[in-house]
Amino acid sequence: MKKSPILAVRGLRASVAEAGVEILKGVELEIGAGEIHAIMGPNGSGKSTLAKVIAGHPGYEADGGHVRLRGENLLDLEPDERAQAGVFMAFQYPVEIPGVSIANFLRSALQARLEDGEELDLFDFQDLLTGCMGLLGMDPSFAQRAVNDGLSGGEKKQSEILQMAVLKPALAVLDETDSGLDIDALKVVAAGVNALREENPEMSVLLITHYQRILDHVQPDAVHVMVNGRIVESGGPEVALELEAQGYEEYRRTHAA
Amino acid sequence: MSGGIAVGGGAGVAEVGEVAAVGRGGDPAWLRARRDEAWELYEATPFPSTRSEEWRYTDVERLLPLGDLEKRPIGSKWSGELPERLRRVLASDGEGAGRVVEMDGRVVSARLDPGVATAGVVLSSLADAACSSDPVVRELLATQAVTASDGKFPALNAALWSDGVFVHVPRGVKVELPIRLSRWVSRPHTPTFTRVLIVAEERSRIAFEDEILSPDFESATLASTAIEIFARRGARVRYVSLQRMGRRGCHLASQRTIAERDSSVDTLNIALGGSVDRVDLNARLVGQGASSEMLGLYFGEDGQHFDFNTSQDHVAPHAHSDLLYKGALDGRARGIFRGIIRVHEGAQRTDAYQTNRNLLLSDHAVATSLPNLEIEADDVRCSHGATVGQLDSEALFYLMSRGLERGQAERLVVRGFLGEVLSRLGRSVVADKVMRTIEAKLVR
Ligand SMILES: Nc1ncnc2c1ncn2[C@@H]1O[C@H](COP(=O)(O)OP(=O)(O)OP(=O)(O)O)[C@@H](O)[C@H]1O
Ligand SMILES: [Mg+2]
Hints:
Mean pLDDT of chain B: 91
Bound molecules: adenosine-5'-triphosphate, magnesium ion
Oligomer: heterodimer
Largest sheet of chain B: 10 strands, mixed
Helix content of chain B: 10-25%
Order of helices and strands of chain B: HHHHEEHEHHHEEEEEEEEEEEEEEEEHHH
Strand content of chain A: 25-35%
Strand order of the largest sheet of chain A: 6-9-10-3-11-12
Mean pLDDT of chain A: 93
């Protein structure tokens, strides 16, 4: 029996806010609770745009359709409200925030979820952070580093996963978190995602990737192909394997702009 | 007369004496002569105008109506309770090697840790030290560092200073904890003129934290300070100025540091309060191997006006100076940074850097940054840079996507931006105090 969807994207059209160039041209996507979906697709097809529109990036405007999280229309919410509602996006290009430590930032993020007047217990926080870092095989000193500032490409991706682990979202959108990771780091990140899902089997994951290899470790329930702002094919894990063998040429021909 | 200033309005030398003679038993003859000379220079020096490069962005006549400042003889020493705010600050400052409290331009207490005093360190009211003709004060007070010929305000200060602090650290004595000066300015409209003279003898070490506080005022109230710092061979001096005056407080500071061979003089200027703050800082590296780290931090809001005018004078070869001034400006605040690195002839192997970064938090805030280089030696490493930027919208989105409200996200970015300067200080009372003040400004 199909579970009721955590995320329902219907007829989503979106464009770059200033330029008015349409990038998403009617995206349909449904993810059930606890499911892992992968999106693949050629460069520039709109995968990151979809992720950012789900997370509420102000640089994009939704021109039509809707995005619902557990029935609630996300498009009406500010980015922080979406996060409170359970959305997490691991950025393809994490942003550097000089002078702000990862620990400090995560503490603020958790504090922000509490009611006014409620204080985050610092010992609980420390335990949570230490636990998550242990899970991801990270050195405890890592949390004292500035958010993405001075981190290597791979470290930035690991930091995104650490944040996901601490924030425990209902829906995690991972935008090419596997790119730039070495083989060991990729395994650690995949193990982290799996461990989190064990802890919270209801957590759903939307995994944007170019490579089959992460899907060897994080088994998807569905694989979608995005071309030119639309999802043009959806299927099981075999879709990714076919893409690995054949590339996007076939799709590109049939779904040209 | 342009910029007619009441303090100067026809005041003769006798009146100068009246304002200033507050030390023990009145000024000695040498000091009286020095004040007279300064007064003459003051009168002969034209009022700073926005036509001059150095004062172009700070229209003193408009921002600081000196014409109607009151000139009153310095009254009797503060007696009775210290104001609540000052008491809180004193209580929270924690342990130091010494503590001076200055009320309305006069030192009311100067206490030095007995162990430090035994080592021969002198901490005293400057007026007392001058009136007892301390030879070091006599030699160095307003003669080599901040002198009357430096400009209109240094001249005025040299003529009218009422008190301040004298610190003398003997050879080889290392004072680990800072000496703190807490100043309180309370009389509206009445200018105060004070000075600090720090002399660190060979291989000695000292840190001095200078905080100025006041209530809000109804009208512009001037606090003029002159800071003179001498680091002899191999000495290490750290000086921190923390300005947290109330509304309409106007702080005009003239600072000069003189670093001899292998010594270091590090400064940090923090401007958070007041309506106008103008700091003229000149770091002179006169001995080989000398070094100066020069930090600055400011956070302006409403119509606050901060103007930093810095210079790094590399007179000797093989010296190092590194300046970093960072500021955030909100509301209609105005920040001006003008800095120059001057590498004098023969100052080979100079290593000198200068960076000014501004973060604008509102569309009405303005930052002006004018870094400059003047190099007369050929084997040097120098760089300067300036940036004026807005809050990065990608950074805000990133933080908000983790659940922080916009305001919180902005605060975090600003904190991180300014934190770079404080992190160079390491953990300290000053850093905590500054962070708390910034925090309070940010939630407004
Ligand atoms: N802010 C923007 N301004 C202008 N064009 C944009 C903007 N954002 C996205 N685009 C364009 O929209 C298209 C989709 O971009 P997007 O980043 O979503 O692609 P992607 O599928 O994630 O690609 P990749 O696999 O390379 O990460 C691209 O052609 C891109 O240039
Ligand atoms: Mg992308």
